[in-house]
Amino acid sequence: MEEKKWTCVVFGCFLRVIQLLSVNAEFKAVSRDQLGFKFMNFFHKPGTVLTDSSITVHSSVTDVSSCQLMCLDHTSCLSINVGKKPNQTTLDCELNNSTSLLKPLSLKKREGFDFYGLAEPCFSSSCLNGGTCIPNMNEGTYHCNCSTQIPYLPYLDNHCSVDHSVIKTSGVFHNVFHLEITKKVYSMNYYEAERACAVKGAQMSSLKQLEDGFRAGFSLCSYGWLIDGKARFPILHPVPGCGSSPGIKEETTPEDKWHSRYNVYCYKETDNCNDKNWHQNDQACYKFFLDTKVRKANAAQACVLEGSILGVFNSVAKLTFLQDYLQRKNVTDEHILVGLSQNAVGAWKWANGEAVQSSLWNVIQPTGPIGIVNAVMKSFDNVPDSDEWKLPFVCQKQLP
């Protein structure tokens, strides 16, 4: 019997676990038999200990597995604290008559010590996309209760996973993006759209959030649910069938949350740039150097050191994003250095090789050699390459 216990501990396999019951305001020590122990894993919380629950302390323990065995041999042991005190070569093993699942507020930080508690089946479940974990305490297993399926987005397995390849997202403007199921245009009712946003770790956008995205350049002729139960879309330019003036367009037919079907606009607080100094707009990340004024060559070199290029703003939508960002930062400089310049044969190109949209020039015949953005006019100017035109700048890197 002792050999079987040792094997389980060494391989991190199975230890008896409590059946979680409603917790009284004051925890009373009970035995494992009273709590209905079965077999489960220890879970590990490094750098912490469970306080006010100690049964006994064993000094001179050689490893964590030995401490786990001591817990197994004590009928009231539900968890352990293991660690070294300063100038100590062996471990202290503290047996507890409770666990963090019963007394979460008693889990405290302690340098050099780790907490190991007995996990109930759902502690490390892999139920996805809002699936609810249903534990089987007698067997030490669980199953996932998945939400109602979204049409054209079926669950692939019993962990509620879905095929993300049929989910298309468009644009990220002020953390707002458009989501649709590619198998059918306008396929979701309100409640299905809400769950579709959750699949992407997001929530449905509010009208205010969509308006912020619109001011940052979001433009898409596609109705999508918002959290208020209305279907809308943002449009910057006249598009046949989508309106003759810019703004947020609203579906005029009264929406039925159960039977009306649209796409959805979602909001996710974090973006894909993974750095607070970089800001996502559509499929690119931008870093602004607004307190630094340099010449074009120095700005380009600074961007190279950031693994990027000088910013490319070759559309009204991107210029709107730039203007909105500068306004929110209360920047008074109206000119910004970007990745626009005239090459040796006189052609204007962006840093990524794109040709320049000529309608966005603020001058009839740009002479160069440096192109800059006039953020107030949302247009391009050209200036000489001289110390008189040291300006703030913005770098850009494309998302994968």
From TrEMBL:
Residues covered by the C-type lectin domain: 262-366
Domain Link: 175-268
Intracellular or extracellular location(s): Secreted
Spans through the membrane: none
Signal peptide: 1-25
Pfam families: PAN_1 (PF00024), Xlink (PF00193)
Disulfide pairings: C127-C144
Gene Ontology BP annotations: cell adhesion; glial cell differentiation; positive regulation of neuroblast proliferation
SUPFAM superfamilies associated with the record: C-type lectin-like
InterPro entries (alphabetical): C-type_lectin-like, C-type_lectin-like/link_sf, CTDL_fold, EGF, Hyaluronan_bind_Proteoglycan, Link_dom, Pan_app
PROSITE patterns: C_TYPE_LECTIN_2, EGF_3, LINK_2
Record GO cellular component, one term: synapse
Highest taxon of the lineage: Eukaryota
Domain EGF-like: 118-161
Keyword Disulfide bond set for record: yes
Keyword Repeat: yes
GO molecular function list: hyaluronic acid binding
Keyword set, alphabetical order: Disulfide bond, EGF-like domain, Glycoprotein, Proteoglycan, Repeat, Secreted, Signal
Homology family: Belongs to the EGF domain peptide family.
Name recorded for this polypeptide: Stabilin-2-like
Originating species: Actinia tenebrosa
Lineage, top ranks: Eukaryota, Metazoa, Cnidaria, Anthozoa, Hexacorallia
The gene coding this protein: LOC116296488
